[in-house]
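Homework-ish question, so no full write-ups if that breaks the rules, but can someone show me the predicted structure for this set?
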Amino acid sequence: MNGRPTIKDVARKAGLSLSTVSLVLNKRENVSDETRRKVLDVINELGYYPQRSARGLASKLSGNIGFVLTDDHFTQAEPFYTKIFLGTELEARKYNYYVLLTTVARTVKETDEIPRFLLEQNVDGVIIAGRIGLSWIEYIRRFKLPLVLIDYDVARHNLSSVVMDNRGGAQLVVDHLHKGGHTKIGFVGGDLDHPSIAERYLSFRETMQARGLSLNGAWVQVDEADTRIRDGYEAMKKILNSADRPTAIFAANDAMAIGCIRCLKESGLRVPYDMAVVGFDNIEAGLYVEPRLTTINVHREEMGELALRRIMEMINHQNNVVTKTLAPVELVVRESCGIKTQEHGHQIPHTFSKQGGNHEDLAHGFGTGSRSADVSVGSGGTEHEPASER
Amino acid sequence: MNGRPTIKDVARKAGLSLSTVSLVLNKRENVSDETRRKVLDVINELGYYPQRSARGLASKLSGNIGFVLTDDHFTQAEPFYTKIFLGTELEARKYNYYVLLTTVARTVKETDEIPRFLLEQNVDGVIIAGRIGLSWIEYIRRFKLPLVLIDYDVARHNLSSVVMDNRGGAQLVVDHLHKGGHTKIGFVGGDLDHPSIAERYLSFRETMQARGLSLNGAWVQVDEADTRIRDGYEAMKKILNSADRPTAIFAANDAMAIGCIRCLKESGLRVPYDMAVVGFDNIEAGLYVEPRLTTINVHREEMGELALRRIMEMINHQNNVVTKTLAPVELVVRESCGIKTQEHGHQIPHTFSKQGGNHEDLAHGFGTGSRSADVSVGSGGTEHEPASER
DNA sequence: TAATAGAATCGAAGCGTTTCGATAATACGG
DNA sequence: CCGTATTATCGAAACGCTTCGATTCTATTA
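A: Not a homework solution, just the prediction itself:
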């Protein structure tokens, strides 16, 4: 009786057997309401809480999910994966699961760098977030655990994944610019190696064509080395060199969009008056650029949630159908696109939700809507505030 | 024999008893070298790995450490706590421990928001990082688990903590400015509520006096509402209003330093020529300000490491002496202080290590030194790069 | 050489659950 | 009113490890 009470104490005090108490704990059926109540009362009275390791041992389930991130992803300034993790963690609580976060180098090297939770059978499923070495994916697959990727996907591996609705986002951008009167739209893609960038690019092309807008080869730059500010800057330069110029630029991510803006300013062009610019990702830096960046917001936390739910499905129902889940995106209108309000004269917030799932299969948990309150829109708070004292 | 091998399989194959194998696993003494070798061979051959929950159940230790963070701390753009967590996680691996990261609201509210790992006896110790509601600290204390605070401290609670060497850092700043020829040094502190800010302030005063430099009340502004950019801006304004002006400003954190610079620029003053500015914390934004900020770098990951080691000590040796551990800091010289090189004509890197522990008790793990390679110093890479495509 | 101490190994109990097959209690249809 | 199906509860084994006290073996000492 010293230390915390155990299930045995509960059983004794309730005048029932261990197994019955266990049935109540696990919310199994075939327990009379009366018994259930009695057990719950005793549990409350004693302050009993089942012990993790004992459960794990008996049930063959650890109650943990492994969350794998490359270290560079985790420590980058933009808290993108941090938010995804948070979404996963919050959702995991509902299932009474823990999330074991571990970081790895980009590619598998030494044996002792392998996430121990795999070796110790300490997780019931694994989530991998972000671009990671294929060797890792292959390695982890061998453990035959439920596995879900977030914000990454490898076509030839047949894995479930949660990705943002890149195609939908690109469509939103083109349509917004189009409705704002632009017909000559350029694209800055950096390099197309990253699956998300490629998708945005393809959808850009498709949407342009679908809207009857012509593509000018000189306005589409997808040959840079990377997808950073510098690459956007260089790509913009090339576009400015073309004889005819577009009136708007869709950059495949915010970093490159910032590079575009920088280049335009240096060239003495005014954004958005001489050239409109729209990005993708809604990173913080987009708020500090002048003019502030119109972009596509991604529901980061929701991505983490969706992945966790998917994993739980796989764990509980052995549901191993491969799914691609699209996380919703939305347009965030700021000043860099030069399009003040919606054509109908709508007010703030200038956000349009785009429901994905245009060709992929079922999209779980879409449109909770409430989250859009998080999104910074239009007006207010111009000051740059990187961090107060912690 | 299906599924993973267990300790039983190892014992059988090695022709030894369970207990002997267990002794080897736990690196206990009183095992002959021959036996040890044989066991290890079999383990290797079978690919055996002890199972977590079974261990936990038998040993009464979960093998987990709880890491508590308030949600705002975790998701802020500056990856300060993220890095601390990473340090903890990496160090935990050495002890074969897992770190369970959970976030909480600033103050305790609903019961079901309590970190489950406490209730489920799923951690052997707890680390709390950053400023957090006292109610949380009090609540967690009741579980009688080893507890360490990082980057926060509450004098009246007698708790072990790991904090950066605020006093040492402030001293470095004053000395650097002094050696650079400044004698009229102002201080911008925002408000002194935060323990770290208060320490920096006190140490600033002490060092000034120790160096025989006089303090001018008009140059010391510690009455703002917060410690953000805006507060630095306002404080700077007041200082500029004084009849006599200082030639250098020490802002108690980088955010306020940035505010100071902004104000100075707007007033038509040039930094560092008309006024030198130095900050504290080495946040990323300090690299993107013009001129780039001279500041005090804090070894974030090391703070996490130190805390984990301390916790492990407490777990293993029941060593419950209360300790305050100081994490080392170093001066990072960039352009905002206007002091090009060290007086001896030293070259890059412009970093001076300051060993803390000036009055606090033992400081664990100081001066590993290797980490200073992480620190951005002096030259190179001017471009602002918030985030490439992930 | 007998007595003793120490080192190496072993057996068995125990950790706190879940789960499966058995049993007891209740309801139902004919 | 009895046999059967269904529901509620129970007992005991099992999960994979640690640990403690007991046992065996070897070396040391008087």
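Now go work out the reasoning yourself. Hint: Residues 16-20, 23, 29-32, 35, 54, 56-60 of chain B lie near DNA strand C (CB under 10 Å from a C1').
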